Fold this sequence. Notes:
There is one protein chain. This protein is α+β, with helices and mostly antiparallel strands. Helix content is 25%, strand content 27%. The strands form three sheets. A four-stranded antiparallel sheet has the order 3-4-5-6, covered by helices on one side. The protein has a two-stranded antiparallel sheet with strand order 1-2.
Amino acid sequence: xxxxxxxxxxxxxxxxxxxxxxxxxxxxxxxxxxxxxxxxxxxxxxxxxxxxxxxxxxxxxxxxxxxxxxxxxxxxxxxxxxxxxxxxxxxxxxxxxxxxxxxxxxxxxxxxxxxxxxxxxxxxxxxxxxxxxxxxxxxxxxxxxxxxxxxxxxxxxxxxxxxxxx
Length: 166
């Protein structure tokens, strides 16, 4: 799935966002535990994209990754109208991740097949000509520029237990 979306930045001219998603189970596991969200024409979440990668070697990583993405999209639809500043955008990201984590954790307590399930998460929320990154685990977000000065924006919430069923 891929698409183009033109965006206007602060006086710097037009920037074109190019996005796509590809998922592969890797060389070790047979089951693909990735789940992603990229806005399409019919979605209400037009300025949000994310990828979740279920924790391999743990129970139900595929369930956890799907739950997190769907919970955050649901939270977005219900609450994005409240985002009126960059500070509220940051709060929005944190609150959506915390709510999704609660759902995954609660589900992990309902049945032995879900015990310990968890997922990584990296999301990008575009607000007011800026991008806010939400991140949990060992997945990464990168800013890639034509100039070659690429930067890794992965900063895990060390020890927070966010988005994992522990």
